[in-house]
Amino acid sequence: MTVSGPLSILLGITGITRDTVFSSPRYAYRFDLTTWGWIHLVVGVALFLIGLGVLLGKSWARAAGIVAAAISVIAQFMFIPYYPVWSVIVMAFDLLIVWGLSRSFHPAAVGGR
After folding, report:
1. Could you tell me how far CA 63 lies from the centroid of its own chain?
2. How does pLDDT run across 20-62, given as a tens digit for each residue?
3. Furthest-apart CA atoms within the chain: distance in Å
4. 98, exposed or middle or buried, with CB in 10 Å at 0-12, 13-18, 19+?
5. Can you say whether the dihedral through the CA atoms of 16, 18, 19, 21 is positive or negative?
6. How many CB atoms lie within 10 A of CB 28?
């Protein structure tokens, strides 16, 4: 999450400041590129902050991380027509986050028993 978040933040900043970097196709979920920039910026900040919570072992962070990564997957999926390679790579990171956080974790198993 501390990798996927900054990637979304960078995409968001680029979308807000230089939206001419992306192509503007016509498709059903068409938003202004500045709007997409704000969406990715907010999702990226949320991912990064929740990722810090996961690293600190906060109990709320696992469920929040799954939700935030799932939202990021949806946002990246809808952004594919604008910047496909970047979106697919970030989607892969997000799916790994969902998979990793949804696996059961038993603190006693970490001790090597």
Report:
1. 14
2. 666 666 666 667 788 888 999 999 999 999 999 999 989 899 9
3. 56
4. middle
5. negative
6. 6
